[in-house]
Amino acid sequence: VPDLSQHPLPALLRADVPVTINTDDPGIFGNSLPGEIEICRKIIKLCDQEIQRCLKHAATAAFPLVS
């Protein structure tokens, strides 16, 4: 996307696509999961409930038999 404020993540969540928040390679890119969550909160404008949904999607994808 040309600008993170135009990221399709909110639209995907509204369409019930099970999206997650991730880092690419923290060692190379210098990013972190808390940092990516802050970007989602401050720039992409996700609310806490939407961020929690993304985290739940990640847990379900990582541990499909647990959820």
Characterization of this structure:
By secondary structure, the protein is an all-alpha fold. It is built from four helices and no strands. The longest helix has 15 residues, at 48-62. The termini are far apart.
Proportion of strand residues = under 5%
Low-pLDDT stretches: none
User: How many strands, which pairing sense, and closed or not: the largest β-sheet?
Assistant: none
Query: Which percent range fits the helix content?
Result: 40-55%
Calculate the terminal CA-CA distance, rounded to whole Å: 32 Å
Overall form: globular
Radius of gyration of CA atoms, rounded to a whole number: 12 Å
Query: Kindly state the mean pLDDT as a whole number?
Result: 93
Overall number of strands: 0
Structural class: mainly alpha
Helices and strands, in order, run as HHHH
**Number of helical stretches of at least 4 residues:** 4
SSE blueprint and pairings:
Elements: H1 9-14, H2 26-29, H3 33-42, H4 48-62
What's this model, at a glance?
With 67 residues, the chain is mainly alpha-helical. It has helices spanning 9-14, 26-29, 33-42, 48-62.
